[in-house]
Amino acid sequence: MEANPGTLDVEKLAMMKRRGVNRLSIGVQSFDDRMLAALEESQREQAREAIRQARETGFENVSIDLIFAIPGQTLAD
Fold first, then answer.
1. What pLDDT does residue 46 have?
2. β-pair partners for 29
3. First and final CA of the chain: distance in angstroms?
4. Rounded to 5 degrees, what are φ and ψ at 26?
5. Global pTM?
6. 10-18 helix and 44-57 helix, angle to the nearest 10 degrees
7. Residue 44: predicted pLDDT
8. What's the CA angle centered on 1, arms 5 and 24, to 5 degrees?
9. What DSSP line would sit under 19-72, residue for residue?
10. CA dist 40 to 33, 69, 70, Å?
11. pLDDT of residue 72
């Protein structure tokens, strides 16, 4: 299942787990505040919390989606 970090909480994660979801992909986009600003996103802490909650809920297969080549992004970013 794919999810947005801002819409996840422990209750939703537990419900997904109970209903048989065994893989979770979280749309993080970036952990860099500059890149998130370029994307008009402000979810860095939400993303970290969603990942932590997913692991605590028992999800062993968690991936994240990151965006590459955001305008202004360098290889170092």
1. 87
2. 66
3. 28
4. -105, 125
5. 0.78
6. 40
7. 79
8. 60
9. TT--EEEEEEE-S-HHHHHHTT---HHHHHHHHHHHHHHT--EEEEEE----TT
10. 10, 15, 11
11. 84
